[in-house]
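Quick start: read one record
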Amino acid sequence: MKVTLISALVASGVALASLSGAAHAKGRLVIYCSATNEMCEVEAKAFGDKYDVKTSFIRNGSGSTLAKVDAEKKNPQADVWYGGTLDPQSQAGEMGLLQPYVSPNLSQIMEKFRDPAKLKGNYSSAVYVGILGFGVNTQRLKEKNLPIPQCWKDLTKPEYKGEIQIADPQSSGTAYTALATFVQLWGEDQAFDYLKQLNGNISQYTKSGIAPSRNTARGESAIGIGFLHDYSLEKEQGAPLELISPCEGTGYEIGGISILKGARNLDNAKLFVDWALSKEAQELSWKKGKSYQILTNTTAETSPNSLKLDGLKLINYDMDKYGSSDVRKALISKWVTDVKMGK
């Protein structure tokens, strides 16, 4: 497993006004980050600069990070898990891998997202919302004389054979959100029939949920399934992409943040959660981090490149059920057996 470790620079100290009075944050913070690499780097560096904390992060997908946190539970190597889909973080809470924390900034977060994980008690918090859908490379479709699909069911049509990419739900929280979305849209039997049909058109199951957006932007595939904010970024950078929110309706992710149980730098981990939930940090995610999710802090200004919740056809995504350990393991196991292995 290859991971990227980027240490943020240490800057001069500033005073922190905390609930207990003035305090000065020192020491270290190790972040497992499942957001984009750029967002991880921007947020870690800004936090380190602001609070005089020596920060470092390791970037990996949500599914891979859950496996890593579980493997390290007797000797935790990180303090906080930031970004990526909530479902694996919710599962980590059920597995006893997280430390609960009620941030004073929760009052600024959309009410429905203040304690979003299945295990209640503020084991995880929500920093953004991402809408599931697919991006299409209009140039590649035009060259191949293919229509722009508008619905999930369109993606199973034979003309799109070899033209679609999606991540592997074993390593990607994005792909698990898609899997859970299809089950909630149609029921488990019909969802897996759909996934088997879709499998015939998939050119690659990527490790990361972000990879299909980049590959579609480059024209390596015509269609990438994932979170639409990733495609917004590629479109802003000049890629010939159109973003599709499918006609049947779609699911969404909550980007989570959680403190790991046994964190060696617990005070700084709590401070980082406060930071991640703040107006300043959430606006920084798009102003410098180029991440265009819908923000959860109600006082924060949203990027003009972000989708708006109003007008989107969203399912009533059951975070408790599909964020549970047993359901997640069962669905991924069934996908591996029935879809990927073709049985």
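The first helix runs from residue 37 to 51.
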